[in-house]
Specification:
With about 90 residues, the protein is an all-alpha fold. About 95% of the residues lie in helices and about 0% in strands. The protein has 1 helix and no strands. The N and C termini lie far apart (about 130 Å).
Length: about 90
């Protein structure tokens, strides 16, 4: 092999190595972009989770309020029914 052909072969190997390095760098950049997108999605999901937890807490509190009001109404209705029964029993005797 002559010096010129050895230099040509080395230059070809160098070009191939540089092409492989460029391809590896591009794959790495794509992976980094994917990581950034995944991080953004994770932050969005975390914000959604926080909002949903707050909404759930508010709904639980509202439900408890409705349950308490319902119990109060039931007690009042029971008293009213008892009063009506009392009046009716007195009228029949």
């Amino acid at each position: 092999m002559t010096d010129a052909s050895a230099i040509d072969a080395a230059a070809k190997r160098l070009a191939l190595a540089l092409d492989a390095l460029e391809a590896a760098l591009e794959r790495r950049r794509e992976a980094d972009r994917g990581d950034v997108a995944l991080g953004a999605q994770l932050q969005a999901l975390s914000a959604d989770r926080s909002r949903l937890a707050a909404d759930l807490d508010a709904q639980v509190a509202q439900t408890r309020g409705v349950e308490n009001a319902s119990r109060d109404v039931m007690r009042r209705l029971d008293r009213a029914i008892d009063a009506v029964r009392s009046v009716l029993e007195r009228q029949h005797h």
